[in-house]
């Protein structure tokens, strides 16, 4: 039986090489890739998310933990694909047109990926048309729109309108420093998250996983 406590501790400390080694070791000991993903990586990233929510750890620690999680995922993903284990859903995220900020977006992407979703990251300065095109291709259950400037917040509204006009069935959530629940309601978003850890719960809720 693999020692998931050691893997969890290594991931939370951000020890990427050790997480990669322990992931391989768990597979060698006969654990299924799905079990290693759930008990080793997702469980640990969940703890990091909760600590982040309570201000017990900060952005640098989360980024280091996420890097360690990716070391484990790099080992698991080819095997998961071979064994036909599907992600629990597809989440798409991007920073809206005119905005070049991506730390918050990257945190959300990492944490949602750490919860077992396939994440499609469109990057920064993403036009409404590009969102629509990508949604039609990737068919996500939820899209996350990020903005850090008050001047780019209206682009969230334009993006939501474009996606709705395209007639695709997808939930849209918004976030970023100047964004509020009231603004999310005003522009017709399906949800608002004040931070990356809360975004994971929101995505799960909107995709019926929670």
Explain what you see.
With 210 residues, this protein is α/β, with parallel strands linked by helices. It has nine helices and five strands, in the order ααααβαβαβαβαβα. The longest helix has 24 residues, at 59-82. It folds into two domains: 4-82, Methionine synthase domain (Methyltransferase, Methionine Synthase (B12-binding Domains), Chain A, domain 1, Orthogonal Bundle); 90-206, 3-Layer(aba) Sandwich (Rossmann fold).
Give a quick precis of the structure.
By secondary structure, the protein is α/β, with parallel strands linked by helices. The protein is built from 9 helices and 5 strands, in the order ααααβαβαβαβαβα.
Helix-strand blueprint:
Layout: H1 4-13, H2 16-28, H3 33-53, H4 59-82, E1 90-95, H5 103-114, E2 118-121, H6 128-138, E3 142-146, H7 153-165, E4 171-175, H8 181-186, E5 191-192, H9 196-206
Parallel strand pairs: 1-2, 1-3, 3-4, 4-5
Features of the shown structure:
alpha/beta, globular, 9 helices, about 60% helix, about 210 residues, 5 strands, five-stranded parallel beta sheet, Rossmann fold, Methyltransferase, Methionine Synthase (B12-binding Domains), Chain A, domain 1
